[in-house]
Amino acid sequence: MKDYRCNLTRLSKKAKEILPEILDKNGYAGRYRLDTSADRLVINSTSNKVQELFHKAEVEAMGEEGRMIFIKQESFSTLWIPGKKSIKEAYTEALDAVENGWPVDQNPITAVGCVEDSVEENTYREEWQLEYMPD
Questions:
Q1: 3-class DSSP state for residue 94?
Q2: Integer distance in angstroms from the first to the last C-alpha of the chain?
Q3: Over the stretch 3-12, which tens digit does the pLDDT of each residue have?
Q4: Which CATH number fits domain 3-62: 3.40.190, 2.60.40, 1.10.8, 3.30.70?
Q5: 111 pairs with which residues across the strands?
Q6: Which neighbouring-strand residues pair with 120?
Q7: Pairing mode, if any, of strands 109-114 and 125-126?
């Protein structure tokens, strides 16, 4: 078994705090390096086992069985920026328009993710992908 690198950004603050205790209780004492400043864990294990350990940490942190789900919504819109401007100036003007209420919710894409589904990266699954995901 080789060292496995994991991203901790999806763990709740409390789960991160109790993660060393969870790892030690499950036989990983001395087999991991935790870098809280970089939100990284390097552990001598497999991805499936790490997902299970992360889930245990979240369950203990929350005090009940469940899943920490992350939701991302990507919205779309268009805006004509008149005048002879640089791309940066046009981008800045478009962002200012959004700050001032320009609608950007035309056919949004919503995606979900959780730490047990992806420990290497912060990936999300779009709604259509759930149809092909095993139960």
A1: helix
A2: 28
A3: 878 888 888 9
A4: 3.30.70
A5: 72, 126
A6: none
A7: antiparallel
